[in-house]
Amino acid sequence: MRLRRITLSYCYWDNNKCIDIQDCSIESPIDCPYDTNCAYLEGKCTKFTSCDNYVGDKSSCEAISILCTSLDGKKCQNKVIPSCSDYNEEDCNYQEGKEGECGFIGDKCQVIKQCSDIDQIKGEFEFMKCILNIHSCKVSSSKCVQKKCSDLTDSSSCQYIHAFDPFDHPQSVQLCKWEDSRCVEAMPNDLNEATCFIDTQYSYLWNPNSKTCQKCNGPPSPPNPDNFGVIIRVAIMIFVISQ
């Protein structure tokens, strides 16, 4: 059965409108450069344009974006990131290519796109990679398979299941709810004011007027910078507390 997933975004409620928090809202100078859509410049996370637009030595360029490096110590340039297919069998399972996590499947090194791909990796790496992708995958009958809501056995963990992502940055989740002493699949309209924001990974927000869990529709204008930082910090605090 195909999972009914929701696409992830980030949002907040303002003046009776659901507003998308724009990309590159990451405050951390450590996390920002690892988002390939972003660049850390002059103390803030901004949209990535091109490595050629940035200047600095090797360490400075790599602190701007994981995509950049410097050979002459003066200006940034694109870092050459190998494809999974460039790795041999010996190195493949330890690597991450430009497409995402690599695995030696069949007779070649290729990107892992789903839990069942991990099941085709030979040797101890099959179970290691399956366990490392614990938010999406599980070992069942000696096979690596996609997790389902029914695999969550208590009400506190029955919130969502991540879809597998090659970069471990899930773009969608399957919502879950606790019903009749078991965890089952859910949809946004099954959520309430207390669960809407957290269970959708901050992609939906409770509309106090319609009493529904509502997806962000996009910003009519950029969010107020003064309020934006507060919103992000509150969202992070909620996430940490909920773990």
TrEMBL record:
This is Uncharacterized protein. It comes from Paramecium tetraurelia.
